[in-house]
Amino acid sequence: MNEFLKDRRSLSKAITLIESSLVKDQEKASELIEKIMPNTGDSLRIGISGVPGVGKSTFIESLGMYLINKRHKVAVLAVDPSSPIHGGSILGDKTRMEKLSSQDNAYIRPSPTKGTLGGVGKKTREIILLCEAAGYDIILIETVGVGQSEIEVHSMSDFFLMLMLPGAGDELQGIKKGILEIVDAIAVNKAEDDNQTQAKVACQHYQNALHILEHKPHWTPPVLSCSALKSIGIEDIWNKIKEFEKITKDNGEFKNKRLKNNQFWFEQIVNHKMITDIKSLPEWENLRTDVLSGIITPQLASLKLFDALYSKKGKK
Amino acid sequence: MSNLEEWKKLAAKESKSDTPIEKLSKDTLENIKIKPLYTQEDLKNLDYLDNLPGIDPFIRGPRATMYTGRPWTIRQYAGFSTAEESNAFYKKTLAGGGQGVSVAFDLATHRGYDSDHPRVTGDVGKAGVAIDSVEDTKVLFDQIPLDKVSVSMTMNGAVLPILANYIVAAEEQGVPSEKLRGTIQNDILKEFMVRNTYIYPPKPSMKIIADIFEYTSKKMPLFNSISISGYHMQEAGADAALELAYTIADGKEYIETAIGAGLKIDDFAPRLSFFFGIGMNFYMEIAKLRAARLLWSEVVSKYNPSNIKSKMLRTHCQTSGWSLTEQDPYNNIIRTTVEAMAAVFGGTQSLHTNSFDEAIALPTEFSAKIARNTQLILQEESGITNTVDPWGGSYFMESLTNEIANKAREIMSEVDENGGMASAIEKGLPKLRIEKAAALKQAKIDSGAEVIVGVNKYINDKEDPVDVLEIDNEKVRTHQVQQLEKIKSQRNNAEVEKALKALEKSAETMEGNTLELAVNAARVRCTVGEITQALEKSWGRYQATSQTVSGVYGKNLEKNETWMGVMEQVKTFEKNQGRRPRMLVAKMGQDGHDRGAKVIASAFADAGFDIDLAPLFSTPEEVAKQAIENDVHVIGVSSQAAGHKTLIPLLLSELKKLNAEDIIVVIGGVIPKQDYQFLLDSGVKDIFGPGTPIQESTDRVIKHILQANKE
Fold it and tell me: pTM of this prediction?
């Protein structure tokens, strides 16, 4: 564990620093990340996604409690993408993780999003590192399945779990094909009471769907059913995750995936920085106005903008 | 020229407008237009104008002679911390001419916890009497003949152990269950919707209700097995149309449940009773009760009852607690009087009038007496009881009754489209509608569009403190814990074990009558907590999902200077600090009234705060942990049930222990002025009493945060 993050309070403050939009904070944040780097990496990062109403929070409550009982330290990073245009966010994650949120060995941090598309905050990767440095060995990253966000979560996790609802057919259409290609497992949730037959049907459906896709040679994503509400099937899912971890650690895929994730992260930082830099140029607003009033074509405007960017850099 | 044309001319002149009807019409929250004048024209298309009291569909009243023969029952709801004190109070009330007792339970009991449970440290003895076992119940009803005195019990979550205790206490008094008369509230649907004192998930909760219907229909023919309640919806902010529609729709769901369990409509429908809230919207409330009887008769008719009593809606009413103000509290006596009049003009069967100090604390003996006398004066001095339904045939009242019935029918058909009330509640639909209505109402008050005397108009320069009732929660808890230890040492543990196992098995298999098994358990001295836990093993405790509305405040306060100033301050803060101000909105203890917390969350988010919601029923330790994890600037505690003096110091000391004293703590809700200094001395930064306008509380909170971040 890192000395900067010795207690809950300092971890929380560090996350706030990482999330800050102030330039001076961002510099401090980069320094902090560099400092803690040696203490990071020693965790299992699990991404969890699914459509609204599938029971993600309840699932995390159930899985989290199971892991706490197995003496793990669990951090949950919940990102709420439904931030309104005006005003702040209302984050109710802990109301859905009542038991887990009161555990000493659990840390749940919901992050308000602002201006980021997709379900994951810009700083989630850094926050994962902080939690690792603070001694959490399981990181659960929750996001709403609304398209781009699954790709994002997949790109920062070791294992990507997709939750589905019982009842097949309609759901399949709601899930983009690309998503099924990146899942490491599917769990059909709410397999309880009257839903059990439907859950079985759904499992069969997703199995068929996964079957026609191409997968990595070492792992065929399993389809399981569970009831997060009644804590049924949680252990089976965990065993599958452990099995995946073992196989991929043995064959080196685990490490490969993390390096790939790093590459993706690098690309993202660059993309983000480019856009911020460009948008902070005075020419950006001027040229936008000019394009709108039809004085200049978009092509010409973009050339001018990049000229401005590079000449400014040159001057420096 | 017709008379009406002439009137229009005069009205145009007096109102200085060419369109006087439009100009003078008022839109209500229910979206009904109240015209300045109603005439014969308005009665043209109305049905039932020839309806008479006592005759289906009972618009003019369930009984033919109504109050002319016997006035409504004065039923004042009360519970003091211990069974002994409550018993003494009931005996005094009965000696003073009261016809029944109405028991209020403490929050721990409501949620099925024994007084020695660690989660309820701050709740024991608050807001009602603590009952842990049949021994407490026997003390509660000591020397009260249960075959003669009707007992009304406000219990929904822990219905099984409480009803079982009552049955066994009567049995040991020598009164068989066949002779028991009274009412148990037992309305779980509205708990899921607004009040939150549920225990189990919806499905097993509905099974419990079916079991109670079955048991009472066989063994307790004089007992009202449910009191289907709209009151709490109104308290949570529902307008009259929503309250009416959802209450009747709840009733329909209960009928379906009972029929699903194999009962016949006439077995139980005559024992269903209702409970409405009566607020300050005088005409609307009268019309609501008249329309309620019409709608219920329509609903039950579909089940082809042969007993006419199955179709007859009988109701209890209570004046609104929401309309009471902390400011200028004696005004509340007048408000309660106006509301009580609306309830009796509407034809209620029994009535509770609130005490004027209930916006601040639990009633004192003095305030309780004034509340009771309000009803006595209406009954004995005013002559109101001399004729049945004096509003019958009024152009306006008949027309308004019809309009609100139609509004309610619309809402009820939306419920039907969603598969009935249980399924609509599961989808969160009614809750969201009510919360939206609450936010709208609050915004109208804060913007001054709705006047509350002494709060947003004619404000007092100086408020004199009012005497309030103090409860020594620690003393009550110690007493209860001792009683529990005594019972547990004297009972036959093998029998206890057996009775609890039977309950566990019933929960697991969903077979057997849980009330019957609870009666067996109570008889061998299983406690309220034990009976609750036995069922909890299979059913679990229900966890509500929180939904919040947004945008309602922002829209309604756009022109308010303070509000716009707050938005500016928030923006500046974000620019300087790199994030928005962040606040954790928390309720601690077993008090589930979360309207205030929801309204605060919604309004502060509209102002630009990031808001975290803590789970209901949190402990101070849990709240401190959450505040630290989310790294909030401020914790806003909402307190409605007098737990603040125990819970707030615990929260502050926990924050201190965790090295997080810099997190600001503010509190809002029902807090007596007498407690302000104590709270401020403990380290609370600010206190927001009832009626504090939202723009003012947002302004004060952002200023506290700015101040703290400057230091």
Answer: 0.81
